[in-house]
Structure formats: C-alpha cells, structure tokens
Design a protein that fits this description.
Helix content is about 5%, strand content about 30%. It has helices at about 65, 75-85; strands at about 1-5, 10, 20, 35, 45-50, 60, 90-100, 105-110, 115, 120-125, 135. It has about 150 residues and is mostly beta strands.
Amino acid sequence: MNIETRDFGEVEIDESTIITVPSGILGFEDVKRYTLLSPLGEDTFPMWLQAVDSTEPCFVVYDPMLIYPDYCFEISDEEQAELKIDENTPHRCIAVAIVPDNYKETTINLRCPIVINTRDNIAAQIMLEDYDFKYPVYSSNNFDKGA
C-alpha cells in the first residue's frame, strides 16, 4: 500500500509492516497505526516511525542499546499483556529522538521507550523513572564517534 509521509513524500509499504499501538504514543493517543521506515538501509538507524493514516506524527527513532549499551528495564505484567509478549517473544526497543538544527545535538528519550512485539507488530510506550528524557546520541562515548 502507499502512504503519504512527512519527510519522504509518498512511499510504498508492505501492509504486514504496520505496527499497532493500542494505547497510542504520549501526546498522540488517537494514532494507532505506524510503520518503521529505514531510508538509510534495512535496520539502519536512525529510522522514522511514521503514522500510516496521516503524515503526522512522524518520529525519528534510534535503538537505545546502540547508544547506551547498559540500557535495560523491566516490563510490567500489565505492559506484557498489552504487548502480548513473554520472555520468548521477539521484540525490539526504540527511543524517540529530538533532532535540532545542529544534528550533533540530537538526543533520545530513554525515559519513554517504545517496545515492539515484532512477531505480532504490537507496540506500547513504556514509562520509566530511572532514565533521562534527553540522552545525547552523538557523544564521545556513543556509536557515531566521527560525527
């Protein structure tokens, strides 16, 4: 199917890539269907989490484990039920980025990651207490040392 995107115009996506977010994303609770776009190559970050049914919202996202290798958290029983996951379910975690004019100042939100059940394409945003809202992507300790 074809969708209209915020940053890439019209793109064709496979309907099997549509991710359902039953509770929505903070501030966008009414938007339930998204897809991950990988303009830099399959599974290459940054990616874009693009709403399927409109051009907004669209979020630039990163895999927080690539930037902060010690990142870990527990998913509550309620969140596991919403995501339909257990310890054997394949899943991934993404973090929403804030990309200012100077991209070297990009940060990711480690406090509110989005967990995706990759088997069933169901996602939920998890709220954590122990992490920062703005963690730098391009620092001397992170994956893009040349940036």
